[in-house]
Design goal:
This protein has 185 residues and is mainly β. The protein is built from one helix and 15 strands; from the N terminus they run αβββββββββββββββ. The longest helix has 15 residues. The N and C termini lie far apart (53 Å).
């Protein structure tokens, strides 16, 4: 590796190592950690506060406010649409086509209109760190680290904000973590 690349790599690792771990960043509440064997993809409903979880065991729907499972089927790959980047919902989101993020790609929003963002970094590859940043800051820009929190460390399969910006999810192949924005008093 050239000396320039190695110096830049060391600089980035130094920046990232100064970011503190905080599973409930300012303005957010950790709702739940949920085990999901064979997790393939996740996606937020656009019709309500629900998360669709697609696994090798079927589909589940989670209430994003409580972390409660409110829908479940046991049909693997049922409802997946052609390229597996979307899936039809069940239960309270029956029939809704939900955009997915996961094993096959896809994506969820990685920013909110409030200047928050999620950044995936891997200074300790193959483990990834999911970094939450506020106030239009970035984990990779010098001086921005105090506005960032390491919220999830794992082999990340999917992550993102809900379409309304009030929920966020991080998932690996065996579980997921869910957060919601704290209500203003």
């Amino acid at each position: 590796m050239s000396s320039y690349k190695e110096e830049n790599r060391k600089r980035l690792i130094s920046l990232l190592s100064s970011i503190k771990e905080n599973t409930s960043p300012n303005g957010w509440k950790h709702v739940a950690s949920i085990a999901v064997g064979g997790l393939l993809s996740v996606g937020f409903s656009k019709q309500g506060s629900y998360l669709l979880v697609v696994s090798s065991q079927g589909r589940g729907v989670i209430n994003c406010d409580t972390g409660e499972k409110v829908g479940r089927d046991d049909e693997p790959y049922e409802g997946l649409i052609e390229n597996s980047l979307s899936c039809f919902g069940i239960g309270p989101i029956e029939g809704e086509e939900v955009t997915l993020s996961g094993l096959n790609g896809g994506g969820l929003p990685q920013t909110t209109p409030k200047g928050e963002s999620l950044e995936l970094v891997a200074p300790n590859w193959p483990e990834y760190d999911l970094i939450f940043c506020q106030n239009y800051k970035s984990a990779l820009v010098p001086g921005h680290q105090s506005e960032c929190s390491r919220i999830y460390t794992e082999h990340v399969r999917a992550f993102g904000f809900s379409w309304c910006g009030n929920y966020m999810v991080a998932a690996c192949g065996s579980d997921l973590d869910l957060w919601k924005r704290k209500a203003k008093l």
